[in-house]
Specification:
globular, mainly alpha
């Protein structure tokens, strides 16, 4: 008798229902960026959006489903305001952090005085 398997997308979308899991998934996508960070992030954001429901997301953001799919595609290039609206609708937000070993060049605005 053949083994029955569950498609990984089903498990992924189930996991991405949890905002903590979704945030960790998107953070990992941002960290995986050698040359294709935005592509990976947009595809990860699309996974989160699908898990939560594209139709509901479209209603919340006042964007069409087609526009969301296009925006969150590998070739998408969302405006910051669109990205912000999508993340807010998902209960998430962007943040910025200092790179642990980043060196600020002398004379730059962020250098110690």
């Amino acid at each position: 008798m053949p083994r029955r398997t569950i498609p990984y997308e089903d498990i992924l979308h189930q996991d991405l229902q949890d905002p903590e899991e979704a945030a960790a998934y998107l953070t990992a996508a941002l960290e995986d960026r050698p040359g294709n960070g935005s592509d990976v992030f947009l595809l990860a954001l699309r996974d989160v959006a699908k898990a939560r429901g594209i139709r509901r997301l479209a209603e919340d953001t006042h964007l069409s489903r087609e526009s969301l799919y296009r925006t969150l595609s590998r070739k998408g290039n969302p405006r910051f305001s669109t990205l912000e609206a999508v993340l807010e609708s998902l209960g998430l937000r962007l943040s910025v952090e200092v790179i642990a070993d980043a060196k600020v060049p002398p004379g730059s605005a962020g250098a110690a005085r």
